[in-house]
Amino acid sequence: MRVIAVVFFFVIFIFSLHPTFANNNADPVNSSISTSTTSLPADGATTATISVTVKDSFKNSLSGDHIKLTSSADSGLVINGGPVGVNHHTAATDSNGKVNFTVSSRNASPGTVTFTLTDTSDLPPVTLGSVWVTFTPASLAPDPSCKDSAPTSVPMLQSAEVTGANQITLTWSEAADPVSYYLVAYGTSSKQYTYGNPSVGGKGTISYTVGSLAYGTTYYFVVKAGNGCAPGSYSNELSAVVGGVRITSTPTPTPTLTPTLTQTPTPTETPIPKIPTLVSDSSNTKMLPSIVMILFGLGGMSIGAIIYWKNKKTGEESIEEKQLEED
């Protein structure tokens, strides 16, 4: 028993000296995620810092773990100064189990982006949690590598009118040169432009029709001019409520075919004369010759009897006459 007790306390001592041996798996409950801001302009220069501290189930900091940051789609996203549009990045935690990520956006039609953090050192990987950052529309900060000059003024959005079913036509005044393109951005909330077209036309374009909009929904629109790699600033914002026809998916009923009944005239019966039919197998037919012979026989006998009785009577009379003569 003493040996078992010594071994038990030795194991406890070893784990107390090396806490990371206790459990090397990240624990989402004890780990933490924070962000320096939840909203920032999509100007390509302003950044938000996402910080992660990774701990195990005993609240021990896990150093050297590889943490992967993954975002939802954003074509203008930049993570830790990397390439534009790449939506993931991996970094290792420091001795305190901490790692930082910086994010920014150059998206012309920005919105809210979801960032998810995963500890890929564990098998299977452990999802630590998510944070949300909203990027708002803004003019892009100058790109040091761009040699183009931005437009010297912004376009003025003049109207947003319903011009057809589920569509709105925008008109604006031109921006001052240099101008090589115009873009349109819009959304269902003010200053939240989640949709758009990065090039609706070149210099001289003053209108654009946005289609496939939801009936009865209010949309907010802006327009921007740009020149090459140098974009300008957004115009004023206009809103409009979409008209048109509400589209419903009511199935077309299948017609029920009702047969047309045509009255058939009742045929007139034509009387057919009955023709007697002799049946060769009839018993009456077979007996007919016998009946005829019997009738002829009876007739002959009757005639013979009459003649007999007549002759007999005549003979008797003659005898009587002779007797009278003799007397």
TrEMBL record:
A Pfam match: fn3
InterPro entries in the record: FN3_dom, FN3_sf, Ig-like_fold, Invasin/intimin_cell_adhesion, Invasin_dom_3
Transmembrane segments: 287-309
Keywords of the record: Membrane, Signal, Transmembrane, Transmembrane helix
Top-rank taxon, per record: Bacteria
CDD domains membership: FN3
Cleavable signal peptide: 1-22
Compositional bias segments (type: Low complexity): 250-267
Residue intervals of the Fibronectin type-III domain: 154-245
Disordered as annotated region, ranges: 250-278
Protein name: Fibronectin type-III domain-containing protein
